[in-house]
Amino acid sequence: MSTRPELADQPSAVIRPFADPDWDQVWPIVRDVVRAGDTYTYDTTMTEADARAVWVERPPGLTVVAASAEGIDGTAKMGPNKGGPGAHVATASFMVAADRRGRGVGAALCRFVIDWARAQGYAGIQFNAVAESNVAAVTVYRRLGFEIIGTVPRAFEHPELGRVGLHVMYLEF
């Protein structure tokens, strides 16, 4: 898998496959995003062991990191959305360190996933549960060609906003 230096504010940053030593920097990102409880449907008390089991994909999936001179800026995981007759559609998840947001890390990770999924022969990418309150993510995904194909009303319990919708988003190749 080739790396791509494309993070706008960090020209030396590259997206590369996750390696075991990366977990020491990936875990704090995952922990902080999960504990915030405002974007993912993960249990906010998720343990480190559970987080690693969920986040680090096995083939045919892939977990990557966006690495710069500052360390790990963000991470993504990708693979088939479902098995069997649904295995031709990919899915992915993204997390960016709080102090690295707004620098294009999430968009670069999403572009990487799109390129990866195409290269792997997937027919498209489906995001199953994007909190409608996660405006930054929804904006990036729409800019990169994803469509909201449906919203489950009040399906996400946001810690400040109460129940908000969960979008199902799709990019067909």
Structural description of this entry:
This protein has one domain (14-172): Aminopeptidase (3-Layer(aba) Sandwich). It is 27% helix and 35% strand. The chain has helices at 23-36, 48-55, 105-119, 135-143, and strands at 14-17, 62-68, 71-80, 89-96, 124-131, 147-158, 162-172. Strands 1-2-3-4-5-7-6 form a 7-stranded mixed beta sheet. Strand 2 and strand 3 form a beta hairpin. Helix 1 crosses helix 2.
Give keywords.
alpha+beta, 173 residues, Aminopeptidase
List the helices and strands and how they pair.
Blueprint: E1 14-17, H1 23-36, H2 48-55, E2 62-68, E3 71-80, E4 89-96, H3 105-119, E5 124-131, H4 135-143, E6 147-158, E7 162-172
Parallel strand pairs: 4-5
Antiparallel strand pairs: 1-2, 2-3, 3-4, 5-7, 6-7
Helix pairs in contact: 1-2
